[in-house]
Amino acid sequence: MRWNACFPVLAVALILPCLSIQAETLLSLASPDETVTVILRTTVQGRLTCSITQAGNMVIEPSPLGVTLEGVDLGLGVSLGQPARREIKDTYVSRGVKSRAINHCMAYDVPVTHQVSGKVWTLEVRVFNDGAAYRYQVPGQGVRRVNGESTAWCLPAHTKVWIQNDTANYEGNYHETQVEMIPRRNDKGDMFIGCPVTAELAAGGYALITEACLYKYSGMTLRPTGTAQLEAVFQDDPNGWENEGPVVSPWRVTILARDLNALVNSDV
């Protein structure tokens, strides 16, 4: 199974809530109406992180990003270049709760340089008025092994979530809990959570975590950590998988909505 401004800022002595390390550089990527912002940081260790704010409220706290290719984490020891920016606004035929949908977002192609190897890859980011998504694009030829990702979502502490752990056929019953209270193991071994995960935010509204455009890539499951962070793992391919040519991950998606009606009607 497989920025409306964008600017570099020097941030000093900023302690990341989940990562407990100091931030060094920052890019701020805004949605068309500037209510949603994706903040990309590289820490002093060079770890690429992502956070998301909505109307000034932190909805996803700084969380690690990166894809591991041939044993090398391309999200660690990196620097960020100046993004290319464009606005996307179009409509398309849709099935489900409405017949036509609107695709409106700011799209950013962020060049990322892995310092040791010199490899330059692209973090493609799209920021909507009601959410955000990103994916990894690593150029190359031939067959290479994708070992996994460092991707995670760090929710605000004590966030209420609805989860299900039937990752075999995704027909499990959803139940409510606090993100820190999700057990790390169950009677079958390690606990794995199926997407989507819905979170009720303390600042109001909801967030939904999932993936999109899964093609020639392992399907993502989420693993609890005993903290407010949920990690992306690949339950079906724990030892990685082979990829021929450029590596293009599925989109890592966070939908934001004021209520459940807006959530199911989101065009993200």
Description:
With 268 residues, the protein is mainly beta. Helices cover 2% and strands 52% of the residues. It has one helix spanning 260-264, and strands at residues 8-10, 23-30, 36-43, 48-54, 57-64, 67-69, 72-73, 78-80, 84-93, 100-114, 120-128, 131-138, 143-149, 152-154, 160-163, 175-178, 185-186, 189-190, 197-200, 206-212, 221-224, 229-233, 241-244, 247-248, 251-257. Strands 8, 9, 10, 11, 12, 15, 16, 19, 20, 24 and 25 form an eleven-stranded antiparallel β-sheet that branches. A five-stranded antiparallel β-sheet has the order 1-2-3-4-5, with no helix packed on it. Strands 7-6-13-23 form a four-stranded antiparallel β-sheet, with no helix packed on it. β6 and β7 form a beta hairpin. It is globular and about 45 Å long. It starts with 7 loop residues before the first strand and ends with a helix. Residues 1-17 and 19-23 have low confidence and may be disordered.
Topology:
Blueprint: E1 8-10, E2 23-30, E3 36-43, E4 48-54, E5 57-64, E6 67-69, E7 72-73, E8 78-80, E9 84-93, E10 100-114, E11 120-128, E12 131-138, E13 143-149, E14 152-154, E15 160-163, E16 175-178, E17 185-186, E18 189-190, E19 197-200, E20 206-212, E21 221-224, E22 229-233, E23 241-244, E24 247-248, E25 251-257, H1 260-264
Antiparallel strand pairs: 1-2, 2-3, 3-4, 4-5, 6-7, 6-13, 8-10, 9-10, 10-11, 11-12, 12-24, 12-25, 13-23, 14-22, 15-16, 15-19, 17-18, 19-20, 20-25, 21-22
